[in-house]
């Protein structure tokens, strides 16, 4: 069916295997593939453009973990950005905190799944939240639309407003509110009429109903299979009524979920639920991470990369722990740390990693040092003899001049490095005192 994004990126990045940081041109090549993947998943073009620009900026310069390919790493970066754009890790429920009856207004085009979703929500509210719900259909256009809701109401065991022929939507809404108050209903769901296309009469009707019913939630129901069109629909509705959320239906179909990204980007409102079938319990909270995976069609690349990141931290933590247990921290250790700093994105990425490093970073910044300094320090250590690296106290004035000349630096640079080593060594000794391995575990955890 589709090439997965990781297949696509594999080609782009094969030549790159094992290189340090993601270069701008490589990221741009990868983003071309990401762009195609998003368009294939039916994300709207303007949303794709914006997304690709943002992620390009984010990815350039990030270091590549040793046990994954750059392509996999880019997939992870793209995935994380997608999840973020889809609303983060949290699911968002209904806002019901209000004097009852709390009104939920369902809006959307004809056939999007409004009536079905209204009944699904009523069932959910009744069974999962113990609410007394009531439903009313304001659809006076489609023949038998009100009867359709009544039938669904019977199926889920939720009352529907008795039908009075000839009433207009605003009158029905008024009657529904009165009835809900009389019967001490907690939540009143109003199912509105749809149209095949957005039109002025539909919008005017919706606004009039919203004005008298003061809905706490106005939920836009969108068919996820409509893809690109969904954006125009969302834009029209969002411009006319105060949407509070979106529900995507037919997520059980073969849509890849691109509509979700578009919806979120265009309305700025959370996607609260996903409809996953015709049955009345086929509705679930919207999970951004699941949908992100589906949009990219990338299986479990994300978890592979997450595992790699965790493994590296563990390797490093174990190695350091062993050294620290002996209270050791020589120039070789410092050199490792400098390398890691570079891999982790330079000085900027350092804060919060380790207390000793934090202090060293502050010292380096206050003395006007930047990331080029990391390379210079590496050169200085490279010019030391193995013995000097293990025992920096051997570095007297004469040796310092030799090291400075060998690394193309000044003696004062050598002194700065020695000072920094001393500070870090002190921090390491402190960590040892704090409980060694256990203390370190806490730092890395
Ligand atoms: P409305 O015109 O917006 O009220 O749409 P309806 O609620 O009448 O739904 C139109 C059709 O879509 C019906 O046949 C529903 O069973 C179907 N439908 C609604 N939601 C879903 C869903 O999440 N998945 C699937 N497969 N079908 C759905
Ligand atoms: Mg309907």
TrEMBL record:
| Positions contributing to GTP binding | 108-115, 191-195, 249-252
**What compartments host this protein?**
Cell inner membrane; Cytoplasm
* Cross-referenced Pfam families: SRP54, SRP54_N, SRP_SPB
Q: How does it sit in the membrane?
A: Peripheral membrane protein
User: Which keywords does this Swiss-Prot/TrEMBL entry list?
Assistant: Cytoplasm, GTP-binding, Hydrolase, Nucleotide-binding, Ribonucleoprotein, RNA-binding, Signal recognition particle
The residue ranges of the SRP54-type proteins GTP-binding domain are 270-283
| Reactions listed under catalytic activity | GTP + H2O = GDP + phosphate + H(+)
Q: What's the Enzyme Commission number for this chain?
A: 3.6.5.4
| The keyword GTP-binding belongs to this UniProt entry's keyword annotation | yes
Domain comment (free text) = Composed of three domains: the N-terminal N domain, which is responsible for interactions with the ribosome, the central G domain, which binds GTP, and the C-terminal M domain, which binds the RNA and the signal sequence of the RNC.
How the protein assembles, per its UniProt entry? Part of the signal recognition particle protein translocation system, which is composed of SRP and FtsY. SRP is a ribonucleoprotein composed of Ffh and a 4.5S RNA molecule.
What's the family? Belongs to the GTP-binding SRP family. SRP54 subfamily.
Question: What is its biological role?
Answer: Involved in targeting and insertion of nascent membrane proteins into the cytoplasmic membrane. Binds to the hydrophobic signal sequence of the ribosome-nascent chain (RNC) as it emerges from the ribosomes. The SRP-RNC complex is then targeted to the cytoplasmic membrane where it interacts with the SRP receptor FtsY. Interaction with FtsY leads to the transfer of the RNC complex to the Sec translocase for insertion into the membrane, the hydrolysis of GTP by both Ffh and FtsY, and the dissociation of the SRP-FtsY complex into the individual components.
Protein name per UniProt: Signal recognition particle protein
Classification lineage: Bacteria, Pseudomonadati, Pseudomonadota, Alphaproteobacteria, Sphingomonadales
**Gene encoding it?**
ffh
């Amino acid at each position: 069916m589709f090439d997965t994004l990781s297949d696509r990126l594999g080609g782009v990045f094969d030549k790159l295997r094992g290189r340090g940081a993601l270069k701008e041109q490589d990221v741009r090549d990868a983003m071309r593939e990401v762009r195609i993947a998003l368009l294939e998943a039916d994300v709207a073009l303007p949303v794709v453009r914006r997304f690709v620009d943002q992620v390009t900026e984010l990815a350039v310069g990030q270091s590549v973990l040793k046990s994954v390919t750059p392509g996999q790493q880019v997939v992870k970066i793209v995935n994380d950005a997608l999840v973020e754009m889809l609303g983060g890790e949290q699911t968002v429920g209904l806002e019901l905190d209000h004097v009852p009856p709390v009104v939920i207004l369902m809006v959307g085009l004809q056939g999007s799944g409004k009536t079905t979703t209204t009944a699904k929500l009523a069932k959910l509210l009744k069974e999962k939240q113990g609410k007394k719900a009531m439903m009313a259909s304001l659809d006076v256009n489609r023949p038998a639309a009100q009867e359709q809701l009544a039938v669904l109401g019977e199926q889920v065991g939720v009352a529907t407003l008795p039908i009075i022929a000839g009433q207009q939507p605003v009158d029905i809404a008024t009657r529904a509110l009165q009835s809900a108050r009389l019967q001490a209903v907690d939540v009143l769901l109003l199912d509105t009429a749809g149209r095949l296309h957005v039109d002025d009469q539909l919008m005017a009707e919706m606004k009039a109903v919203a004005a008298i019913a003061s809905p706490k939630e106005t939920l836009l129901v969108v068919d996820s299979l409509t893809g690109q069109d969904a954006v125009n629909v969302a834009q029209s509705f969002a411009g006319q009524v105060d949407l509070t959320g979106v529900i995507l239906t037919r997520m059980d179909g073969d849509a890849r979920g691109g509509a979700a990204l578009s919806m979120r980007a265009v309305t700025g409102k959370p996607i609260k639920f996903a409809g996953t079938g015709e049955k009345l319990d086929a509705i679930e909270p919207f999970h951004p991470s699941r949908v992100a995976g589906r949009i990219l069609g990338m299986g479990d690349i994300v978890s592979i990369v997450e595992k790699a990141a965790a493994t590296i931290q563990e390797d490093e933590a174990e190695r350091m722990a062993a050294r620290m247990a002996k209270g050791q921290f020589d120039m070789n250790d410092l050199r490792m740390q400098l390398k890691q700093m570079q891999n982790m994105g330079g000085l900027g990425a350092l804060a919060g990693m380790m207390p000793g490093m934090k202090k060293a970073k502050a010292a380096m910044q206050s003395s006007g040092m930047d990331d080029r300094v990391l390379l210079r320090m590496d050169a200085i250590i490279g010019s030391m003899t193995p013995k000097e690296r293990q025992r920096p106290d051997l570095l007297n004035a004469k040796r310092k001049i030799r090291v400075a000349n060998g690394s193309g630096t000044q003696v004062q640079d050598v002194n700065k490095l020695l000072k920094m080593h001393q500070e870090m060594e002190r921090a390491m000794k402190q960590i040892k005192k704090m409980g060694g391995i256990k203390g370190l575990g806490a730092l890395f955890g």
